[in-house]
Automatic annotation (TrEMBL):
The protein, known as: Hexosyltransferase
Family: Belongs to the glycosyltransferase 31 family. Beta3-Gal-T subfamily.
Chief place where the protein resides: membrane
Location(s), subcellular: Membrane
Transmembrane segments: 18-40
Bilayer topology: Single-pass type II membrane protein
Length: 299
């Protein structure tokens, strides 16, 4: 009887030790599984972001907004572009703005000239060897707010559909606002691929002089964004190959207050919209990139 008790104690001690070892091993395995999933998923996400095409952003800004909305763009979404410049006149108030060198003596950017200025900038970028590695170009004005992660997702989707092999421009709801609601805009966010810039700025060696004269007349006389889009369509640039509500040409409050527009805004994939003032830009930056726990942007 005594022998049986001692034997039982001996085996129970061994079993107790093995039990703790098994529990300890399970905890280590569980911890490693959680760590590896988090680490490798994060690396995969970072790798996907690194593989996204380079984006060249330029903002056309009025001279009297250097210290307000233009400065807010610098400290919010502008820093998230791969290359970022302002198109505005060099002044004492523009000291914090990274300006495209060839346009530092340009006249003040106003609503009637913003699309003509855009064409001049695109013509320069098409010839500039320094920016030859960029295939996507974003035009914005000094009241625009762009959600860069959503912009990158849009470009990746366009690339996956092989849209980069034809000239295209993504312009959002500009045409819809004008054709359905008679709302004309200037300076709305537009996205161009390099082939679209080539088609816009290069003069083809064609025998049809009337075609070229019509093209030049269209680009010279355009003022509003829908007129710019009309010119691009004339030279066979594809407009909005995907749904057209990802870039919003109006202020968010406009979509909220105008009952006609209540079903046209917004979506979790919205790329850009207009902001009322610089305070709104800082708010949007804080809400999206600081309070969103799922944001993949590096702080």
């Amino acid at each position: 009887m005594l022998f049986c008790c001692r034997s039982y104690r001996r085996h129970s001690r061994l079993f107790g030790r093995c039990y703790y070892i098994v529990i300890f091993s399970c905890l280590i395995g569980l911890s490693w599984s959680i760590f590896s999933n988090f680490y490798f998923n994060r690396n995969d996400n970072n790798l996907n972001e690194q593989k996204s095409p380079l984006i060249f952003c330029f903002v056309l800004s009025e001279n009297n907004r250097h210290l307000t909305s233009s400065r807010a763009i610098v400290y919010s979404w502008g820093k998230r572009c791969d290359r970022f410049y302002f198109i505005t006149r060099l002044q004492n108030t523009s000291i914090e703005l990274m300006m495209l060198e060839n346009f530092q003596v340009t006249s003040d950017i106003i609503s009637n000239t913003i699309n003509k200025n855009t064409f001049d900038v695109l013509s320069y970028l098409q010839d500039a060897e320094l920016f030859s590695s960029y295939h996507w170009f974003l035009r914005a004005s000094d009241d625009s707010f762009v959600i860069i992660p959503n912009l990158r997702r849009l470009i990746i989707q366009l690339d996956n559909k092989q849209e980069e092999y034809r000239p295209l421009a993504y312009v959002g709801d500009v045409e819809q606002m004008y054709e359905k609601y008679h709302i004309a805009t200037t300076g709305s966010v537009m996205l161009f691929n390099r082939l679209a810039i080539n088609r816009l700025t290069l003069i083809d060696d064609v025998e049809d002089n009337k075609y070229e004269s019509d093209r030049q007349r269209c680009l010279t006389n355009m003022i509003y964004d829908h007129e710019f889009i009309r010119c691009m369509k004339k030279i066979q640039i594809t407009i909005n190959p995907m749904n057209d509500n990802l870039i919003l040409s109006q202020n968010l409050s406009t979509y909220k207050m105008d009952k006609r527009l209540k079903d046209t805004c917004c979506s979790p994939n919205t790329v850009a919209f207009r902001a009322s003032n610089e305070t709104d830009m800082y708010k949007f930056e804080f809400l999206y990139h600081r309070l969103d726990a799922l944001s993949k942007i590096n702080k």
